[in-house]
Structure formats: structure tokens, C-alpha cells
Amino acid sequence: MKKVFIDGKDGTTGLKIYNRFENRDDIELLVIDPEKRKDPKERSRLINESDITFLCLPDAASIEAVSLVENDKTKILDTSTAHRTLEGWAYGFPELSKRHRELIETSNRIAVPGCYASGFNSIVYPLIKNGFIESNYDVVCFALSGYTGAGKKGIAQYEDENRDKELDSPRLYALSQHHKHLKEMKAISGLDKEPIFAPTICDYPQGMVVSVALYTDKMVKKYSPSDICSMFKEHYGKSEIVKVRDLGYTENMIASNTFADRDDMEIEINGNEDRVIITSRFDNLGKGASGAAIQCMNIAIGTDEKTGLNIGE
Q1: For residue 304, how far is the Cα from the chain centroid?
Q2: Residue-level pLDDT at 264
Q3: Which residues belong to the active site?
Q4: Buried b (16+ CB within 10 A) or exposed e, 130-146
């Protein structure tokens, strides 16, 4: 039985991870006294007693928590942005490549991907890795997310019965082209520069759609939608968690809330011979956060990666 500690259990991601252990008999949860949740000595004791520690903390607190590790056995799974592009940290998206999976299996330091970055990298990494676009391609990305991605403060604003009417409408943000996931999106995908990124927060709780649009004549060669779909299917193989749909899978509109409470992801290729839209759909709190963290833990401890996950058809 593995001992697990969640540092930051009361946050949105921490609570989601905590609740997933309710019916698992292979995990012993180490729970901190609420009055000592910010006590470095008590946190250090529990971190070093654990086999796995999840960090569900702001960046600075996550960095501090890592410094409290005093042994070479405790595996750290960090859900913050602090370590996602640092050398020595495995990037927690095992479907991207065999190497990504191997590092998750063997590393004691695993960085859980950001939600937007998960969708973006699920699209752009295969395009660059398989030679369909150059690393200097001018990528533009649009994304829609449920409001739970805004954290506890944002959730409280959206769920306040006296909220501002502006929250009834989708809201485009990161207008200055500064977003905490951009560094990760560039580094992991293999791009030479950060993409133009237009995220929108919407008035529904969970679910995310991330889309990248391409001119086919700007690719390495003029690929058809069928060519692109075939490449994605080969890249992700028979994965039960990242599933590439057939061309024409969605006839009309792709909704962004239909993967709520699921831990898988689906990729679609739509468009025509000249312009293609590649879309990744998933739950921002599932494959975009706690689901990805649990999947990484399962891989790291050598159990079925789908244990404790909700995987759809």
C-alpha cells in the first residue's frame, strides 16, 4: 500500500485528487491537521513519510515544498506551473511519446501539465514531431474553458447569485498575450516561439476545447485532412485516454462541456483541402488537472494507468 500526501488538499485540484482515493484500497492517505497545513515542519514530516506527494499549491509554495524533501524515494507530482519546463522533471503527458511515458515511470519528479497546455501540446507536438509543420510555424490557438479553471476565487464569483452580468457571457482574456501556460506550450511542443493564444472563460463549470487552425499550403507540404487524421491516429495508436476521431465525427458543432467529469481526451480534424482545424476536447479538471495527476501516479507506481479514472467511449 502506497502512502500518499496531498499538500494543498483544500484547493480545487487538491480536493478533486483527494476525492478520487475514496474507494482505493491500494492507497493510504496521510492527512495533515488543518491547523498545521502551513507548518513547514509538519509538511516536511508528511512529505518525507509519503511514497507520493501531490503538490496542489501556488508556484512559490511548490518550490518550497520540493526543498523539504530529504530522501530519494518520495515521488513528487507537482500540479503548479513551477517545474513544467525544468530539466530533471518528467512532463506528465505519457501519450505524447514513448520517452514521456518512460520518464514518468522512472522519475521522482513529475510535473502535471496545465489544462490549456494539455490541449495545445496534444495537437502541436505530433505536428512538429512527425514533420507536418516546421518548428517556426506561426501557430494561433483558440480555447474555451469552464469557469472552474479560474480557481476558488473565480468559482466563487461565477457561483455568486449577485454576480456581475458580464459573467453571463464568454470572456476573452490574456489580451496582452501573457499567460502562465505559454512557456510550457512553446517548450513542450517544440515551437521556436510562443503561439498567439486566445483563451476564453465561459459560464459553465467544467470542460475545455482547444483548437489550432492551419493553412495546408503553409505546412511542410500540402497535406489533406485525411493525411493529418491518419498521422494523429498513428501517433496516439490505441490509447484509451487520448482518442483520435474519424473525419466527419462531428457533423455540425463541437461543444466544450460534454467531457465534464471525464478523464479522457478526444482529438478531431475538420476543414477542407486548404484550411484545417484540429481540436482537442477534454475536462479542464480531468485530463487537464486531477485526472492527469492520478494517471501519472498510477504509471509511476506501476499500476493500471486507468485506475480511478472515468474513461468514456
Answers
A1: 19
A2: 98
A3: 115
A4: eebbeeebebebbbbbb
Task: Please state, as a whole number, how many other Cβ atoms lie within 10 Å of the Cβ of residue 8.
Answer: 23
Say what the pLDDT of residue 245 is. Answer: 97
Task: Kindly state the cell numbers that stand for 186.
Answer: 512553446
Distance CA 47, CA 66 (A): 9
Burial 182-203 (b: 16+ CB within 10 A, else e): bebbbbbbebeebbebbbbbbe
Please report the pLDDT score of residue 150 as a whole number: 85
The C-alpha cell 512527425 sits at 130
The C-alpha cell at 273 is: 483541402
- Residue 63: enclosing H or E segment and its boundaries? helix 59-67
Which residue, among 74, 4, 69, 10, has the nearest Cα to 38 in the 3D structure?
Answer: 10
CA–CA gap between residue 17 and residue 54 (Å, rounded): 9
Residue labelled with grid coordinates 469552464: 146
What pLDDT is recorded for position 211? 98
Q: Which residue has the cell 479522457?
A: 264
For residue 23, the model assigns a pLDDT of 85
Helices 40-49 and 59-67, axial angle in degrees (round to 10): 60
Contact 73, 66 (CB under 8 A): no
Residue where the block lists cell 494561433? 140
Confidence at residue 10, expressed as pLDDT on a 0 to 100 scale: 85
Here the cell at position 296 is 501519472
Which residue has 515551437 as its cell numbers?
191
Q: How many CB atoms lie within 10 A of CB 79?
A: 30
C-alpha cell at 159: 457561483
Question: What pLDDT is attached to residue 11?
Answer: 87
Q: 218: which DSSP letter?
A: G
Tell me how far apart the alpha carbons of residues 20 and 87 are, in angstroms, rounded to a whole number. 30
Q: Hey, what's the cell of 129? A: 514531431
Amino acid at 108: N
pLDDT in tens, 85-135: 999 999 999 999 999 999 999 999 999 999 999 999 999 999 999 999 999
Instruction: Collect the ranges in the chain with pLDDT lower than 70.
Output: none
